[in-house]
Amino acid sequence: MISIQGLHKSFGELEVLKGIDLELDKGEVVVIIGPSGSGKTTLLRCMNILEVPTAGTISLNGQKADFSKRVSKKEIDAVRRQSGMVFQQYNLFPHKTAIENVMEGPVIVQKVPKETARKKAEQLLRKVGLGDKLDFYPFQLSGGQQQRVGIARALALEPEVMLFDEPTSALDPELVGEVLQVMKDLANEGMTMVVVTHEMRFAQDAADVVIFMDQGKVVERSGPSEIFTNPKEERTRQFLNLIS
Ligand code: ADP
Protein backbone atom coordinates (compact mmCIF):
# COMPACT_ATOMS: atom_id res chain seq x y z
CA MET A 1 0.00 0.00 0.00
CA ILE A 2 2.86 2.36 0.85
CA SER A 3 6.35 2.17 -0.58
CA ILE A 4 8.83 4.95 0.00
CA GLN A 5 12.36 4.68 -1.26
CA GLY A 6 15.37 6.92 -0.76
CA LEU A 7 13.26 9.91 0.23
CA HIS A 8 15.22 13.13 0.68
CA LYS A 9 13.96 16.58 1.56
CA SER A 10 15.99 19.74 2.02
CA PHE A 11 14.89 23.23 2.93
CA GLY A 12 17.65 25.34 1.36
CA GLU A 13 20.89 24.13 2.92
CA LEU A 14 19.14 22.14 5.63
CA GLU A 15 18.73 18.45 4.80
CA VAL A 16 15.77 17.31 6.89
CA LEU A 17 15.12 13.85 5.40
CA LYS A 18 18.27 11.90 4.57
CA GLY A 19 17.07 8.84 2.69
CA ILE A 20 13.92 7.37 4.19
CA ASP A 21 12.67 3.91 3.20
CA LEU A 22 9.27 2.74 4.35
CA GLU A 23 7.09 -0.17 3.29
CA LEU A 24 3.62 -0.75 4.66
CA ASP A 25 0.94 -3.28 3.78
CA LYS A 26 -2.75 -2.53 3.46
CA GLY A 27 -4.39 -2.28 6.87
CA GLU A 28 -1.15 -1.74 8.78
CA VAL A 29 -0.74 1.04 11.32
CA VAL A 30 2.68 2.61 11.71
CA VAL A 31 3.46 5.01 14.52
CA ILE A 32 6.42 7.34 14.02
CA ILE A 33 8.22 8.53 17.12
CA GLY A 34 11.36 10.55 17.60
CA PRO A 35 12.78 13.77 19.01
CA SER A 36 11.50 17.17 17.96
CA GLY A 37 13.12 18.25 14.70
CA SER A 38 13.91 14.71 13.54
CA GLY A 39 11.76 15.13 10.41
CA LYS A 40 8.56 13.27 11.36
CA THR A 41 6.16 15.99 10.22
CA THR A 42 8.17 16.63 7.07
CA LEU A 43 7.98 12.93 6.17
CA LEU A 44 4.20 12.96 6.60
CA ARG A 45 3.85 16.17 4.59
CA CYS A 46 5.98 14.65 1.82
CA MET A 47 3.68 11.60 1.71
CA ASN A 48 0.76 13.95 1.03
CA ILE A 49 3.06 16.08 -1.17
CA LEU A 50 2.30 19.18 0.84
CA GLU A 51 6.09 19.36 0.65
CA VAL A 52 7.75 18.29 -2.58
CA PRO A 53 10.58 15.84 -1.84
CA THR A 54 14.04 16.65 -3.19
CA ALA A 55 14.65 13.04 -4.31
CA GLY A 56 13.29 9.55 -3.94
CA THR A 57 10.08 7.76 -4.82
CA ILE A 58 6.70 7.58 -3.17
CA SER A 59 4.16 4.98 -4.13
CA LEU A 60 0.73 4.96 -2.50
CA ASN A 61 -1.83 2.37 -3.55
CA GLY A 62 -0.01 1.87 -6.84
CA GLN A 63 0.25 5.58 -7.69
CA LYS A 64 3.91 6.42 -7.98
CA ALA A 65 5.95 9.60 -8.18
CA ASP A 66 9.72 9.63 -8.71
CA PHE A 67 11.12 12.92 -7.43
CA SER A 68 14.54 12.29 -8.92
CA LYS A 69 12.84 13.21 -12.21
CA ARG A 70 10.45 15.96 -13.16
CA VAL A 71 7.07 15.07 -11.68
CA SER A 72 3.91 16.30 -13.40
CA LYS A 73 1.01 17.91 -11.56
CA LYS A 74 -1.13 14.97 -12.69
CA GLU A 75 1.22 12.48 -11.00
CA ILE A 76 1.30 14.58 -7.84
CA ASP A 77 -2.50 14.78 -7.74
CA ALA A 78 -2.83 11.03 -8.27
CA VAL A 79 -0.52 10.30 -5.31
CA ARG A 80 -2.13 12.98 -3.17
CA ARG A 81 -5.62 11.57 -3.72
CA GLN A 82 -4.61 8.33 -2.02
CA SER A 83 -4.17 9.87 1.43
CA GLY A 84 -6.10 12.03 3.85
CA MET A 85 -4.33 14.18 6.39
CA VAL A 86 -5.26 15.16 9.93
CA PHE A 87 -3.34 18.09 11.37
CA GLN A 88 -2.31 19.09 14.87
CA GLN A 89 -4.29 22.34 14.49
CA TYR A 90 -7.54 21.08 13.08
CA ASN A 91 -7.63 23.72 10.30
CA LEU A 92 -11.44 23.72 10.03
CA PHE A 93 -13.16 26.52 8.14
CA PRO A 94 -14.36 28.73 11.02
CA HIS A 95 -17.38 30.11 9.16
CA LYS A 96 -18.69 26.69 8.11
CA THR A 97 -20.61 24.21 10.28
CA ALA A 98 -19.30 20.73 11.09
CA ILE A 99 -21.27 19.15 8.25
CA GLU A 100 -20.28 21.88 5.78
CA ASN A 101 -16.63 21.34 6.70
CA VAL A 102 -16.94 17.63 5.94
CA MET A 103 -18.88 18.21 2.68
CA GLU A 104 -16.47 20.81 1.33
CA GLY A 105 -13.85 18.40 -0.12
CA PRO A 106 -16.24 16.04 -1.93
CA VAL A 107 -18.31 18.94 -3.35
CA ILE A 108 -15.43 21.19 -4.41
CA VAL A 109 -12.70 18.68 -5.27
CA GLN A 110 -14.67 15.65 -6.41
CA LYS A 111 -17.76 17.50 -7.75
CA VAL A 112 -20.04 15.19 -5.78
CA PRO A 113 -23.67 16.44 -5.79
CA LYS A 114 -24.44 18.39 -2.60
CA GLU A 115 -27.15 16.05 -1.33
CA THR A 116 -24.98 12.96 -1.77
CA ALA A 117 -22.11 14.73 0.00
CA ARG A 118 -24.41 15.81 2.83
CA LYS A 119 -25.63 12.24 3.44
CA LYS A 120 -22.07 10.93 3.46
CA ALA A 121 -20.90 13.72 5.78
CA GLU A 122 -23.73 13.00 8.20
CA GLN A 123 -22.80 9.33 8.23
CA LEU A 124 -19.13 10.17 8.90
CA LEU A 125 -19.94 12.63 11.67
CA ARG A 126 -22.11 9.96 13.30
CA LYS A 127 -19.22 7.53 13.00
CA VAL A 128 -16.93 9.90 14.95
CA GLY A 129 -19.64 10.42 17.57
CA LEU A 130 -20.84 13.84 16.42
CA GLY A 131 -24.25 12.99 14.98
CA ASP A 132 -25.81 15.60 17.27
CA LYS A 133 -23.40 18.39 16.29
CA LEU A 134 -23.89 18.57 12.52
CA ASP A 135 -24.84 22.25 12.46
CA PHE A 136 -22.42 23.47 15.10
CA TYR A 137 -19.67 25.88 14.13
CA PRO A 138 -16.08 25.11 15.17
CA PHE A 139 -16.16 27.74 17.94
CA GLN A 140 -19.12 25.88 19.48
CA LEU A 141 -17.13 22.63 19.64
CA SER A 142 -14.42 21.47 22.05
CA GLY A 143 -10.93 20.79 20.68
CA GLY A 144 -11.59 17.05 20.75
CA GLN A 145 -14.82 17.50 18.83
CA GLN A 146 -13.12 19.78 16.29
CA GLN A 147 -10.42 17.20 15.76
CA ARG A 148 -13.04 14.51 15.22
CA VAL A 149 -14.60 16.75 12.55
CA GLY A 150 -11.07 16.97 11.10
CA ILE A 151 -10.91 13.17 10.91
CA ALA A 152 -14.38 12.95 9.32
CA ARG A 153 -13.35 15.60 6.79
CA ALA A 154 -10.26 13.62 5.78
CA LEU A 155 -12.32 10.42 5.51
CA ALA A 156 -14.89 12.13 3.28
CA LEU A 157 -12.47 11.98 0.35
CA GLU A 158 -12.30 8.19 0.78
CA PRO A 159 -8.53 7.93 1.09
CA GLU A 160 -6.73 4.59 1.07
CA VAL A 161 -4.27 5.84 3.69
CA MET A 162 -4.79 8.19 6.64
CA LEU A 163 -1.92 10.40 7.82
CA PHE A 164 -2.10 11.85 11.33
CA ASP A 165 0.32 14.59 12.36
CA GLU A 166 0.33 14.82 16.16
CA PRO A 167 -3.48 14.84 16.17
CA THR A 168 -3.83 15.13 19.94
CA SER A 169 -0.96 17.38 20.94
CA ALA A 170 -3.02 20.60 20.86
CA LEU A 171 -5.74 19.08 23.05
CA ASP A 172 -6.39 19.39 26.76
CA PRO A 173 -5.49 16.07 28.38
CA GLU A 174 -9.08 15.07 29.12
CA LEU A 175 -9.97 15.35 25.40
CA VAL A 176 -7.15 13.19 24.08
CA GLY A 177 -8.89 9.86 24.73
CA GLU A 178 -11.94 10.53 22.56
CA VAL A 179 -9.76 11.31 19.53
CA LEU A 180 -7.50 8.30 20.09
CA GLN A 181 -10.59 6.11 20.38
CA VAL A 182 -11.83 7.23 16.94
CA MET A 183 -8.36 6.48 15.56
CA LYS A 184 -8.33 3.02 17.19
CA ASP A 185 -11.75 2.28 15.70
CA LEU A 186 -10.44 3.23 12.27
CA ALA A 187 -7.41 1.00 12.74
CA ASN A 188 -9.65 -1.89 13.78
CA GLU A 189 -11.72 -1.39 10.64
CA GLY A 190 -8.58 -2.02 8.61
CA MET A 191 -7.57 1.52 7.61
CA THR A 192 -3.91 1.89 6.65
CA MET A 193 -2.53 4.61 8.92
CA VAL A 194 0.66 6.57 9.48
CA VAL A 195 0.58 8.35 12.83
CA VAL A 196 3.10 10.79 14.28
CA THR A 197 2.36 10.96 17.98
CA HIS A 198 3.81 11.20 21.44
CA GLU A 199 1.04 8.98 22.79
CA MET A 200 2.99 5.84 23.56
CA ARG A 201 -0.10 4.07 24.89
CA PHE A 202 -1.70 4.49 21.48
CA ALA A 203 1.45 3.11 19.85
CA GLN A 204 1.37 0.12 22.17
CA ASP A 205 -2.33 -0.55 21.64
CA ALA A 206 -2.81 0.20 17.96
CA ALA A 207 0.50 0.07 16.06
CA ASP A 208 1.65 -2.88 14.01
CA VAL A 209 4.99 -1.17 13.51
CA VAL A 210 6.79 1.60 15.38
CA ILE A 211 9.46 3.63 13.66
CA PHE A 212 11.99 5.65 15.58
CA MET A 213 13.39 8.58 13.60
CA ASP A 214 16.35 10.73 14.50
CA GLN A 215 18.13 13.41 12.47
CA GLY A 216 16.26 12.67 9.27
CA LYS A 217 16.78 8.91 9.27
CA VAL A 218 14.90 5.83 10.37
CA VAL A 219 17.01 4.49 13.23
CA GLU A 220 14.84 1.55 14.21
CA ARG A 221 11.73 -0.23 13.03
CA SER A 222 10.14 -2.78 15.36
CA GLY A 223 6.88 -4.11 16.69
CA PRO A 224 5.51 -2.04 19.60
CA SER A 225 6.16 -4.60 22.30
CA GLU A 226 9.77 -5.04 21.15
CA ILE A 227 10.63 -1.38 20.78
CA PHE A 228 9.23 -0.37 24.15
CA THR A 229 10.63 -3.28 26.17
CA ASN A 230 13.78 -4.09 24.28
CA PRO A 231 14.90 -1.41 21.80
CA LYS A 232 17.70 -2.55 19.50
CA GLU A 233 19.42 0.81 19.15
CA GLU A 234 21.03 2.91 21.86
CA ARG A 235 19.50 6.12 20.47
CA THR A 236 16.00 4.61 20.68
CA ARG A 237 16.68 3.57 24.27
CA GLN A 238 17.86 7.06 25.19
CA PHE A 239 14.80 8.69 23.64
CA LEU A 240 12.38 6.31 25.35
CA ASN A 241 14.12 6.89 28.69
CA LEU A 242 13.77 10.66 28.24
CA ILE A 243 10.05 10.58 27.62
CA SER A 244 9.02 7.93 30.14
P1 ADP B 1 9.51 16.86 13.74
O1 ADP B 1 8.13 16.68 13.20
O2 ADP B 1 10.23 15.57 13.97
O3 ADP B 1 9.55 17.72 14.98
P2 ADP B 1 9.92 18.53 11.43
O4 ADP B 1 9.72 17.67 10.25
O5 ADP B 1 8.79 19.42 11.86
O6 ADP B 1 10.38 17.61 12.66
O7 ADP B 1 11.17 19.46 11.22
C1 ADP B 1 12.46 18.97 10.90
C2 ADP B 1 13.39 20.12 10.61
O8 ADP B 1 12.98 20.75 9.41
C3 ADP B 1 13.42 21.18 11.68
O9 ADP B 1 14.76 21.61 11.83
C4 ADP B 1 12.57 22.27 11.09
O10 ADP B 1 12.97 23.54 11.57
C5 ADP B 1 12.84 22.14 9.61
N1 ADP B 1 11.72 22.60 8.77
C6 ADP B 1 10.48 22.06 8.74
N2 ADP B 1 9.69 22.70 7.84
C7 ADP B 1 10.45 23.68 7.31
C8 ADP B 1 10.23 24.70 6.31
N3 ADP B 1 9.05 24.82 5.70
N4 ADP B 1 11.25 25.52 6.03
C9 ADP B 1 12.44 25.40 6.62
N5 ADP B 1 12.74 24.46 7.56
C10 ADP B 1 11.76 23.61 7.91
TrEMBL record:
Which Pfam family, any one, appears in the UniProt record?
ABC_tran
Keyword list, A-Z: ATP-binding, Cell membrane, Membrane, Nucleotide-binding, Transport
Question: Does this entry carry the keyword Lipoprotein?
Answer: no
- SMART domains (UniProt xref): AAA (SM00382)
Protein biosynthesis: present as a keyword of the record? no
Instruction: Name all ABC transporter domain ranges.
Output: 2-240
| Domain of life the protein comes from | Bacteria
**Which InterPro entries has this protein been placed in?**
AAA+_ATPase (IPR003593), ABC_ATPase_HisP-typ (IPR030679), ABC_transporter-like_ATP-bd (IPR003439), ABC_transporter-like_CS (IPR017871), MetN_ABC_transporter-like (IPR050086), P-loop_NTPase (IPR027417)
Q: How does it sit in the membrane?
A: Peripheral membrane protein
Question: What GO molecular function annotations does the UniProt record carry, in alphabetical order?
Answer: ATP binding
Its localization reads:
Cell membrane
What is this protein's name? Amino acid ABC transporter ATP-binding protein
Species, as recorded:
Sporosarcina soli
